[in-house]
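Sample 1 of the test manifest.
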Amino acid sequence: MKIGIFDSGLGGLFTMRRIVSRLPRYDYVYLGDTKRIPYGDRSRETVYRFLEEAVDFLFRRDCGLVVVACNTASAEALRRIQTEYLPRHYPDRKVLGVIIPAAEQAVKNPGAARIGILATRGTVRSGTFAKEVRKLRRGARVFQNAAPLLVPLIERRAPAREIRPALQSYLQPLLRKRIDTLILGCTHYAIIKRQAKAICGPQIRIIAQDEILPAKLAAYLRRHPEVETRLGKGHSRRFLVTDLMDATKILAQKWFQGPVAFTIVRLPEQAG
Ligand code: DGL
């Protein structure tokens, strides 16, 4: 069986390259729903339906474990997938998200007391990050801001001079709250973490998911030999997208240091 990695777009590829380099022997299938991105501005019900379609698609491609790299889908729909969909349809498969690992990392530093979250509108609206952070650190002050313009800018490879003013204006309200930790709560924001660091300065600790997920996944596999032993170790990688833009090809080639062969697929699968 394979490890599936799902994102609404190309941001998850940035996380995947770090996962693959930490855990290279497994077989991977990436699925990016590039045709229907952004998820961040959609209703909760739609995000749930899209995630269910994606998870089902990956399970049919022999994934035993799916990592939902997309924060919006993790925040708005993962719990329902885990508690309703899996027990009914795939009781022996696993779906993991990214919110709890990021929240755990944010509170790791004993000094973390004022935590900022930059995310999509959907993730902010769900309140999931704030809830998970407060569960782990009672009394933490959590401040959120939605950054709806960033994902489209990143997906089309906008230059830094276009991204920087948008990023700055989204970070300002969080900086005014004197945050000590910033969670980049969207797969895509890890791609611009250097710019975020430059704006925030050295005092603010930045949590970028591409840096934390590989170790979290490795730890999960160590704790769950019943999952790990079922995973194939053939070093294979497949890259599936629902639409293919030039920007995706260029960025994937840069991140994986060579051309990436994408296959365009249809979601939901059964649609004619
Ligand atoms: N991949 C999504 C996330 O991590 C962001 C893009 C979107 O809005 O679909 O939240």
